[in-house]
Amino acid sequence: MKKQKSAVAVTARKTSPLYKDAAIPSTRRVKDLISRMTLEEKAAQMLCVWQSKAATMLDAAGDFDFQKAKKSFRNGRGLGQVGRPSDAGGGKDARSMAVLTNAIQKFFLENSRLGIPVMFHEECLHGHAAPGGTSFPQPIALGATFNPGLVESLFTMTALEARLRGAHHALTPVVDVAREPRWGRVEETYGEDPYLVSRLGIAAVRGFQGEKNFRDKQHVLATLKHFVGHGQPESGMNCAPSNVSLRVLQETFLYTFKEALREAGAVTLMASYNEIDGVPSHANKWLLQDLLRKQWGFKGFVVSDYYAIWELGYRPDTHGHNVAKDKKESCAVAVQAGVNIELPDPDCYLHLVELVKKGVLKESQLDDLVAPMLFWKFEMGLFDDPYVDPEEADRVVGCDEHRALALTAAHEAITLLKNENNLAPLDLNKIKTIAVIGPNADRGLLGGYSGVPKHNVTVLDGIKAKVGKKVKVLYSEGCKITIGGSWNQDAVVPSDPEEDRKSIAEAVRVAKKADVIVLAIGGNEQTSREAWGLNHMGDRTSLDLIGRQEELVKAMLALGKPVIVFLFNGRPLSINYVAENVPVIYECWYLGQETGHAVADVLFGDYNPGGKLPISVPRSVGHLPVFYNYKPSARRGYLFDDVSPLYAFGYGLSYTTFDIANPRLTKKKIRMDGTTQVSVDVTNTGKRAGTEVVQLYIRDLVSSVTRPVKELKGFKKVWLEPGETTAVTLEITPALLSFYDVNMKYVVEPGDFAIMIGNSSRDADLQKLTLQVTR
After folding, report:
1. Active site residue 305
2. What does R_g of the chain's alpha carbons equal in angstroms?
3. Which of 105, 417, 439, 443 has its CA 20 to 30 A from that of 363?
4. Matching PROSITE patterns, A to Z (predicted)?
């Protein structure tokens, strides 16, 4: 009987194409499959459908329509990707999305000539952006945690939730370095420092991809974006040119991508909208071919940003680079640069077949671009076992365990900027009435690229839940920031000054009855967001509080009661008046679905805040740029103003106090290829348990090219009980001492290095040692 089974298996293997044999290595399966594909089938793998899902494969309810799909894809050529199945029909919950992806996948496996599966991509910036998905803090808030382990756990959770619903490819993480606070996409980044961004980006990729055993159906492909220079656009405008030197490009913007590829092996990258030195990224052969593939050895695939290939020519609703005369030429330029697939809908790449037949492109170029996408479809098991379990998706997505992790992240993100006379935390036993005031007090605060989580706890709801019947909670909106305020709402309508002042008067009447006032102010999802079109802006010329919010603050302070401010915003704000006059200030960024619970836990002392600023807070737009790692000649001073930031990178207080002492090097002198360690003793000198982030900064004191005054090169977060001391040790390796010299060689130069260690980037918070490096 066994011999008979074996014979059947051998016969089946001989008659079935090699690429269908799961026992064969993926590289061989790819080679075999491509040899069988027509030009048209190869081109189809470089296409995606997103908004066109409704027209090509869905019914009016957003469910799969076999007859419509059969008609739309009657040529049997297949398709590369389907974008965001979670948004079908206005939004799919976990079970219905799993059912939908199964149906779409089944169709393409059974109704394309070669049975090539599709890949589903989703947005997963801070949780799967889908109905029911667990939504945790925005990346800028995760940057404040200085906790790579936490970030990895969060994206492991996100990968599981997305994969169980049928997704394979996350368009995340953003590893842009945010050096321009006017830019509306700051919230999507981990901050202004390339080392911090790289460590958290690596953690995110590891969370998404795990050990790349994608057949476990628990992980997805990660996409590093936006490649490259997106985070310092001219004038702070999204998509504007990145006017940086090659050295800055290499050391600041490319560094994060290179490290995430080297250490975590991200499978995909997304090219950026912007240009560098006159060349848009989607047309940049040097960037995508010479550097990425040849120098760095990248074997994955590059996806276009949405509509960016069209923008190589001219896109009327936003802009164009005009390096192509039409969509056909845009197609050729992008293929030659090395963009594997066009997102989000069939557009410029519809000309692929024609351009090959005319000799503008070679079919071998398509082979090279299609091969890595097929390889990862094989590696994910999509040819062999592509379906997901809707019941399991329903059970896991948004579960209590994931909700608890989102709360942990929100706790760690909150950053205490000021606590005059230790007013915070509040003692419930000493308060009878609390007034919760402000435009951000009773609204969901998720930020951009968010889904609709099962829970979305407002500040007001969180405080009410915390105090129960012990304290009376009063509420007043105080004023508005904008009318509506939805991220998706194109038009941004300023609030009416007269109505705002009526609301402020009402807030004063309410607050008079309270013992303490909690103000929730800042920005909203409209005032800091991706500016994706002329009708959908999000970049600003001012970083001041919008509308009548400062008037509201002044009115509350005038009552003579304790005032506590919680800031919610997607970018740093120039809160000069607040900083000078309000006794307690917390920077929250966007904390996700558990916002209210996290705020209440911190406010009443059930959690001790330990966040650190991942980006400097400027005093005004006139102070920009304000990033801490500037060159020696860059901050000489201003007439009539302080040159320092309002709050520095790495800064953040606690309800307890810490002493960092006894800095020491294991070796004070090393060779250029040598290593050493720097250690400090950290003691919790206060009365509460809490966290401190020990930060290591380095500067080459004399060098062949100018170097920043300091650069973050290491950090470690420690939890200490009152009175507890621990030694923190950080490695110093050649990689941390290297830079691009006058000949653009990445080297360690001999000489003295300043080793600075402390709890923020401020000179006053750092202790200094000297390391001597010899040949």
Report:
1. yes
2. 27
3. 105
4. GLYCOSYL_HYDROL_F3
Instruction: Compute φ and ψ for 750, nearest 5 degrees.
Output: -70, 155
Superfamily grouping for domain 406-623: Glycoside hydrolase family 3 C-terminal domain (3.40.50.1700)
* Extents of the domains making up the chain: 280-361, 406-623, 658-774
452 neighbors 496 (Cβ within 8 angstroms):
no
Backbone angles phi, psi at 758, to 5 degrees: 180, -150
Q: What is the pLDDT of residues 245-279, one digit of tens each?
A: 999 999 999 999 999 999 999 999 999 999 999 99
Angle at CA of residue 410, ends 409 and 411, nearest 5°: 90
User: Interhelix angle for 26-36 vs 363-379, to 10°?
Assistant: 140
Cα 233-235-240 angle, rounded to 5 deg: 40
Tokens of 333: 């330029």
**HEC readout, 636-674:** CCECCECCCCCECCCCCECCCCEEEEEEEECCCEEECCC
SS3 360: coil
For residues 200 and 142, the answer to whether their CB atoms sit within 8 Å is yes
Q: What distances in angstroms separate CA 506 from CA 477, 521, 552, 703, one per listed residue?
A: 9, 17, 11, 61
> In order along the chain (775 residues), what is the average pLDDT of each group of 10 residues?
45 75 97 98 98 97 98 96 98 98 98 98 98 98 98 98 98 98 98 98 98 96 98 97 97 98 98 98 98 98 98 96 98 98 98 98 98 98 98 98 98 98 97 98 96 97 97 98 91 96 98 98 96 95 98 98 98 98 98 98 98 98 98 96 98 98 98 98 98 98 98 98 98 98 97 98 98 97
* Cα→Cα distances 71→75, 76, 111, Å: 9, 10, 11
Separation CA 294–CA 299 (nearest Å) = 10
Give the integer Cα–Cα distance in Å for 64 and 105.
10
What is the largest distance, in Å, between two alpha-carbon atoms of the chain? 93
What is the Cα–Cα distance from 23 to 99, expressed in whole angstroms? 28
Complete DSSP assignment for 474-486: EEE----SEES--
Which secondary-structure segment (H or E) carries 502? helix 497-511
Return the beta strands (E) in 512-562 as ranges. Answer: 516-522
Question: CB-based contacts of 22: which residues, under 8 Å, 6+ apart?
Answer: 381, 383, 384
Q: Which two tokens stand for residue 94?
A: 């976990």
Residue 433 pairs with which residues in a beta bridge?
472
DSSP-derived secondary structure for 111-178: HSTT-PPPEEEE--BTB--SBT------HHHHHHHT-HHHHHHHHHHHHHHHHHTT--EE---B----
Judge whether 574 and 618 are in contact, CB under 8 Å: yes
Element (DSSP H or E) covering residue 119: strand 119-122
Nearest to 450 by CA among 172, 89, 233: 172
Q: CB–CB of 435/476 below 8 Å?
A: yes
Q: Tell me which DSSP letter residue 341 carries.
A: B
Cis check for the bond before 708: say yes or no (omega within 30 of 0).
Answer: no
Contacts of 515 (CB under 8 A, 6+ apart): 431, 432, 433, 434, 561, 562
From the list 19, 240, 24, the residue with the least C-alpha distance to 109 is 19
> SS3 breakdown of the chain: % helix, strand, coil, rounded to 5?
35, 20, 45
Give me the catalytic one of 65, 176, 305, 700: 305
Omega within 30 of 0 (cis) for the link into 453: no
CATH of region 658-774, choose from 3.40.50.11890, 3.40.50.10540, 3.40.50.150, 2.60.40.10? 2.60.40.10
Collect all residues with Cβ–Cβ distance below 8 Å to 398 and sequence separation of at least 6: 94, 132, 133, 134, 161, 453, 454, 455
3-state secondary structure of 352: helix
Beta bridge partners of 746: 740
CB within 8 Å of 606: residues ≥ 6 apart: 466, 600
| Residue pair 696/664 in contact by the 8 Å Cβ criterion | no
